[in-house]
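Wed. Picked up where I left off yesterday with NR LBD domain-containing protein. The coffee machine is broken again, so keeping this brief.
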Amino acid sequence: MFKASVGLSVSAETTNNKMIEALVACEPDTLQVFSVTSHTLDNDQRVLGQLSDLYDRELVGIIGWAKQIPGFSNLALNDQMRLLQSTWAEILTFSLAWRSMPNTGRLRFAQDFTLDERLARECHCTDLYTHCIQIVDRVQKLGLSREEFYILKALILTNSDVRLDEPQALLRFRDTILNALSDWVSVVRPGQAMRASQNMFLILPSLRQADGIVRKLWSSVYRTGKVPMNKLFVEMLEAAGYR
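Structure written out below (tokens, as returned):
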């Protein structure tokens, strides 16, 4: 694995990287928990309710984020939705891992809400916790700069096997993101750009695994009716046939 270099303080403006400039500008803020007023809920219901609300609000955020990425809105509208429906869980997991560094054994879902192993066990989401903590560790070892995190997150949006109406348009969109990443690492990681990019891509299979774990958990929660789930969250689960 490679380590972050001194050159990572280079700005997007310095490298004339318009894609990264745009991604820096449209990055959503970290959420805060909306307090649950009911004191009659069990602890696992309360925590799952908070997590459900955070996932739903973060979904709203990434839809707005995606629309601001240069080139995304040029895709066919149906293709935009298919990409979001097929990659949202990977995007949210990658964002969660980034927020949770350095790895202290806690997943930072919001500024004021973290999930540790004990709480995960109480809420019956140990699989999610264990896999996400492993991803935190992997992301930490990569030593990514903030800009590399932003651009990898945009790349995840394009890393889908879903059938599209205009697949060539996706390839062009993906190429603009890959070119921006290549340009960035060639400036801030001179002499190790290719190896650096390849190592970054090694995180993608773990995120694909996380997709299945996230969907399985929340589909189960939805079926049991244990906590309220907002319409958008349910629609994104159902769209991929995981219900």
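Quick read: The chain has one domain: 41-239.
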